[in-house]
Design a protein that fits this description.
7 strands, five-stranded antiparallel beta sheet, about 30% helix, two-stranded antiparallel ribbon, 2 domains, elongated
Length: about 150
């Protein structure tokens, strides 16, 4: 279970073994759906346990955003930007597609993402184009840099 789910379950007092549908039905039984949850007037809410979460919308929003930002920072902490790469030349070229084991026509000059840095026996790299995966010889891949 992710760090975010654990924090959210504590914050919202959720039971993780219950389904979301059951929890939503329980919540809707106690709350007036026509009431504005961000309004400070909580006289029309029958469940007083949820009053603190509903009555102060700014704190609720801030704490939820803090959880989201913390998780996003954790995920992207070691992320590095990718360098742009393209197939050298112009015009059409035929490259091997491993999924169908056929040659596919691809336009040169197209931006690609190199998926595997290891070459196969024939000196080709697995790259992703806009719509397929193909094997391109390493010498035909141009490193454009940070475009």
């Amino acid at each position: 279970m992710s760090k975010f789910k654990k924090k959210a379950s504590k914050f919202f007092k959720l039971e993780l073994d219950k389904t979301l549908e059951e929890q939503l039905n329980d919540y809707l039984k106690d709350v007036n759906p026509t009431a504005d949850p961000w309004n400070n007037d909580t006289s029309d809410i029958s469940n007083r346990d949820n009053v603190s979460l509903i009555s102060n919308g700014d704190e609720f929003y801030d704490s939820l955003m803090k959880l989201y930002i913390d998780d996003l920072e954790h995920i992207t902490r070691n992320a590095k930007p990718r360098r742009y790469q393209a197939i050298s030349g112009s015009g059409p070229a035929w490259f091997f597609e491993p999924d169908t084991r056929t040659l596919v026509k691809t336009e040169r000059g197209m931006q690609v993402v190199v998926l595997a840095e290891e070459e196969d026996d024939l000196g080709r790299l697995l790259v992703q184009t806009m719509n397929t995966l193909i094997m391109v010889p390493k010498e035909e891949i141009l490193d454009i840099g940070y475009n």
